[in-house]
Amino acid sequence: QEKALGPNHPLLAEGWISLGVLYYQQKRYELAEPAFKQAIVIYENANRPNPAYAASALLNLASIYLEQGRLTECEPLMERGLAIKKAQLGNDHPEIAVALYNQALLRQQQGRGAESLTLLRQAMDIHEARGELRDPEAMRTRNDLGDALAASGRLEDGERSIRQALVLREEVFGTNHPSVADSLVSLGDVEMLRGN
Predict the structure, then answer these.
(1) Quick check: 176 and 142 in contact, CB under 8 A?
(2) Sign of the alpha-carbon dihedral angle for 87, 88, 92, 98
(3) Which among 69, 148, 151, 168 has the fewest CB atoms less than 10 Å away?
(4) What is the pLDDT of residues 116-167, one digit of tens each?
(5) What is the pLDDT of residues 4-18, one digit of tens each?
(6) Residue 145 and residue 120 in contact, taking contact as beta carbons nearer than 8 Å
């Protein structure tokens, strides 16, 4: 396809993104990173780039860097990708909620807990406004919002949010699902913060 279209055709970027996502899901970050970088280069050089794909490449590369703890490299990619997504989709789209969630993880790793908490609230507000309470991303966000609230000293609010996530996760996934275990661990963390 590269021979027929040329090395910088936007359709090739879509292929690079798909390949990068596959490698990312396999946790083969050393292969995913160059795939996403190639997609970004193509979009940056395209006459009429597709902003949605450009944002996808940026945010996926940022996710790799976040996983690897490369926070300085992650932050500008995440901010740029989120800005593109907001310009394309508005502020209340589910993809914005996911991007805000990932930005909250970045802020948490940077030791910026108050900013992380704000971003998690914004993401949860989007899910709630759209009625997506049983969506796996919404349940994960609610659980992590509870973790952040508890870490900030708001133990009752944190526990309430985690318990809401737990109930939903049990209803959707059953009691033996890994996400249910995550909520139970979060409740245990709240009890530890209480000194129990």
Answers:
(1) no
(2) negative
(3) 69
(4) 999 999 999 999 999 989 999 999 999 999 999 999 999 999 999 999 999 9
(5) 666 666 778 888 999
(6) yes
